[in-house]
Amino acid sequence: MSLASLPVSTDPVLRVENVAKSYGTLKALDDVSLTLKAGEFVALLGLNGAGKSTLFQLLSGLFAADAGQIVISGHDISQSAIPALAGMGIVFQQPTLDLSMSVYANLIFHARLHGMGSATKPRIQAELNRLGLSEQTKTTCIKLSGGNRRKVELARALLHEPRLLLMDEATVGLDPASRKGLVDYVHQLCRERGMGVLWATHLVDEVEDVERVIILHKGKVLATGTPADLLQQTGKIRLADAFLELTATPKSS
Ligand SMILES: Nc1ncnc2c1ncn2[C@@H]1O[C@H](COP(=O)(O)OP(=O)(O)OP(=O)(O)O)[C@@H](O)[C@H]1O
User: Which Pfam families match (predicted)?
Assistant: First the structure.
């Protein structure tokens, strides 16, 4: 049975509780808690160095938190990493395609890692079709534009039909039209597939239409709410000004 055909659970697809992570004496994450439900698009907004990538590295099991708990689709990542990660797709900030291989070879490699069987080829074709890349299936990735490389990374993240999609500054290096295209496409997927999406960025224009914004600053959650909540809280008219106001006056630790 594919993950997509499992009954929809009302439990959060992601629960992060009191998570901490330090590099030596630097607290990159300090008592961070958040939840994400199925079908919710949540933005993790933070300046450079806020801790976004560190959080994503913990969520993807690259290393362990010093304290706290991470539960993905009901599985504690520290105890049940395989089922936790099986239901998650991720696009990292740094490109991770093997540029010497074709689009198809990159995707089939990922499919095998996820133990996908006979459904693999139609799934690859379906994701590439939707992204307008069906003609590029056999193209070596080094020949693709930056925007199309990102789309292949997204197709790869979606291949095993995750319940949770993590996007870590996934629009870095894209032109404004490609950026908007990617944001709009992921919003559409979130609605259609009931996927929870955590979208990390420092670009405020990418989060104007999200259901909830979590502002991370110097490793701490400074504020959380709808864009309207954040405007009301700061008395600002533009979300960019609200973000600047909140991050200019950090709480003392
Ligand atoms: N491997 C590491 N060793 C030491 N310090 C690190 C390491 N990785 C990150 N840091 C530090 O931890 C803090 C959080 O970094 P992180 O990359 O998680 O932030 P970010 O919000 O993703 O930033 P950016 O938007 O610039 O990518 C920063 O002060 C960074 O310098």
Answer: ABC_tran
21 lines ligand 1 (CB under 6 A): no
Mutate to test the pocket of ligand 1, among 52, 92, 199, 214 (most ligand atoms within 8 A of CB): 52
Task: Enter the pTM of the model.
Answer: 0.89
ipTM of the prediction: 0.97
pLDDT tens figures, 63-109 = 999 999 999 999 999 999 999 999 999 999 888 999 999 999 999 99
Q: E strands along 6-120, which residues?
A: 14-23, 26-36, 41-45, 67-72, 75-76, 88-91
Structure tokens at 86: 């099986």
Residues 135, 102: contact at Cβ < 8 Å?
A: no
The closest alpha carbon to 74, from 89, 85, 90, belongs to 85
Q: Which residues of the chain does CATH 3.40.50.300 include?
A: 11-87+162-253
- Options 3.40.50.300, 3.30.70.3300, 3.30.70.60, 3.40.50.720; which CATH number does 11-87+162-253 get? 3.40.50.300
Q: Residue 228 corresponds to which tokens in the numbers above?
A: 């309207």
Q: Which atom of ligand 1 is nearest to the CA of 216?
A: 21
